[in-house]
Amino acid sequence: MAVLSETPLVYALVGNPNCGKSTLFNALTGLRQKVGNYPGVTVEKKVGECYSQHGRRMTLIDLPGSYSLNARSPDESVMRDVLLGRAPGTARPDRVVCVVDASNLERHLYLVTQIIELGVPVIVALNMVDLAVGKQLRLDVHRLSERLGVPVVPTQASIKKGLIDLKVAMSRDDLTPPHGLPDLLPVPVRGGLLRSRETLSQKGVVREGAPLLEPLYLLSSHDPTHYGISDEARSELQAVREQLEREVPGWEDRLVAARYDAIGALCEEVVRRPDAQQLSLTDRLDAILLHRVWGWTALLTVLTVIFTLIFKVAEAPMGWIEAVLSGGELWGREVGGLAGWVTGVMPDGDLRSLIIDGAIAGVAGVLVFLPQILILFFFIGLLEDTGYMARLAFMMDRLMGRVGLNGKSFLPILSSYACAVPGVMATRTIDSPKDRLITIMVAPLASCSARLPVYALLIPLLFPPALMPAWGKALILLGLYAMGTLGAFFFAWLFNRTLMKGVSTPLILELPTYKAPALAGIMRQMADRAWMFVRRAGTVILGLSIVLWAALTYPKSSDGAPSRQVENSFAGRLGRVMEPLVRPMGGDWRVAIGLIGAQGAREVFNSQLGVIYAVEAGAEDETPLRDRLRAEKHPDGRPVYSLPFCLGLLVYFVFAMQCLSTVAIVRRETGGWKWPLVQFAYMTGTGYLLAVLIYQLGTRLT
Amino acid sequence: MSFSSDQPSQALRDARAGDTVRVLRLEGQEAICSKLREMGFCEQAEVRILNNSGTMVCSVCGSRVGLSRQLAGSIRVSAAVA
């Protein structure tokens, strides 16, 4: 009978990485999704809704892909905690849908055997049946369901096949916890676990009737960090584990082997393989793409194409965004944009200035990078979806291993070339806490797109226009990127040697079967990630822009002369105070203000200088900023923007940590102020020292 | 299910592409060994080497797994089995 209850049935969707879980989640829930974060850890929490056959609301939680309940990374600990009902703010799921790759049952059933023991009803979605057919595998679905003791539904989420059957199974009222699998626990272990569950539940570490293996999963020897477990609980759990290990030495390893034995026997029974082993398409592609010559050629080509497109294709939409918000040329016509419209409808005054110079300029400063970030996310999605990303990480592993990083650090660093915020967020998949921390520490050294406008402003100032062909500028730009990259490798090596001792996890990575990308899914993910970027970066930079605007506008100078206004403002006074710090690298108080502004977000440097010189010069003077900078002189007549100064300033921008959003995200991801402060100190310190060195040496030599 | 210790063994790293070998034992840190076991490199498991030129790719439990060479050095396997 249908249960007429208002509380929705809560389903958790679990599976190994690359099983098509998220595609299935999207197909089941459509647009009824919410993306948030689990408290404490910054792992994306995706919750969606759909309706059962009887019209009952069902909530679906899409959990991060994982191979085992023995969690090794923050991502995996979220799956464990939600399934065990230990995640704060998330109800324990009533039922679990295990998504498995039909073409790869042996590996995927491992997690299924663990889930089945948890004592909640389980449904297995046998996904990607098309791949199994392609491999000429014949699966006895009926027998599999019988042996596992759970409903098994063949699906192909990418073309929405089997979804109705899956929903029918999910709507069943009569699902009971499965007991089809043979008991894999040796008798003495079971006894020990039963006793320890009693002890632990009395002490409130686990709930009454918790899964027998919960203590194991909470404190597996596999996970050195024990995410989300309190210290008292940890010592209790440790005692239980040591006791069991004394009674039955090596039982954990034997349990793993027993699972694979059971799975092996099961697969013998339900999977019929073709007689002859033949080379699959993936094997043939891997022979090229992992080849020591062709593989690297392909890798470099792919990266070059992505980078070229990030900068080339994004150019036009960046111009449109700029034009629409701040005014400029749009499709051959000069437009005033939002700023121009506000100028037209509002009387001159502080409020108008706040809106135009504070809010609109600030928001434009962030949104202008959106095209680049969208393109980057698109390619990352494409690489992940086709299966090439795993190969990239795998190929890079040896190279990155030399400086103490591992292959999984590659994606975060790659992302950081667009923006360090998604880059730092992408470190969540790294197992080893040490590798993860080092990656977070060095990722912001990759020259992000916010540095680009500053580079673009300063590079032409290095040499007189006549001496500087276009390829020369490109070469310098390339050099700055190389400097950031080498810097990241150098500091990774240094941290690995000094600050952060600990074990690196050697890379072991499943290389999924190559497949055609599902564009709809990629687009959707791209939109989700981009929106998170806009929201996060947008709020910080908007706030900061307004603060900067206020610092430049107040207090009002008494005589109202524009040149005095900046000098007398809070920012101007601060610039004066900071001038002694900036002088060794060749700057004056105006540069100091620019650098203070750039401390929040690098690209602000341009607009700061623009505002300072514009305010000083008055409204009529429309000399472009770059020419004005070129003409700028120290009191003794030397040009301010000389070669040594500009070069030093460029290097400062390569190294210094000047991004509030990154500081904020690093604080969240590392769980405290310690690492963001260390990062700020080492990056800015390096940039400053190098800039001073270059200026001092440069002025002495010329 | 123990193997006699005199069975000829080699590091997985030294196995040739195309060979199928059997895992004899895992060496090194416990945490890393258990990760290997969970990825299918249990004692007695059959492993087919797909690629061993610079990178190490194996077929284990029906799926492709890439390993760092350091890790492949800590897995002792039998000589090629038929």
For this structure, what is the CATH homologous superfamily of the domain at 9-171 in chain A? Answer: P-loop containing nucleotide triphosphate hydrolases
Second CATH tier, the architecture of chain B? Roll
Counting copies of identical and different chains, the oligomeric state is heterodimer
User: Rough shape of chain B?
Assistant: globular
Helix content of chain B: 10-25%
Q: What is the CATH level 1 assignment of chain B?
A: Mainly Beta
Name the poorly predicted regions of chain B: none
The CATH homologous superfamily of chain B is termed Ferrous iron transport protein A (FeoA)
- CATH class of the domain at 9-171 in chain A reads Alpha Beta
Query: Which overall shape of chain A is indicated by the principal axes computed on the Cα atoms?
Result: elongated
Give the C-alpha Rg of chain B: 11 Å
Number of continuous helical runs of chain A: 30
Averaged pLDDT of chain B: 83
CATH architectural label of the domain at 9-171 in chain A = 3-Layer(aba) Sandwich
Write the element-wise H/E pattern of chain B from the N-terminal end onward. EEHEEEHE
Outline the structure in words.
The complex is a heterodimer of chains A (702) and B (82). Chain A is α/β, with parallel strands linked by helices. Chain A is 59% helix and 8% strand. Chain A is built from 30 helices and twelve strands. Chain B has one domain: Ferrous iron transport protein A (FeoA) (SH3 type barrels). The longest helix of chain B has 9 residues, at 30-38. Chain B is of the alpha+beta class. The interface between A and B is large, with 48 and 33 residues.
Question: Which key features would you list for this structure?
Answer:
heterodimer; A: 702 residues; alpha/beta; Rossmann fold; 7-stranded mixed beta sheet; two-stranded antiparallel ribbon; 12 strands; 8% strand; elongated; B: 82 residues; alpha+beta; SH3 type barrels; 6-stranded antiparallel beta sheet; 6 strands; 16% helix
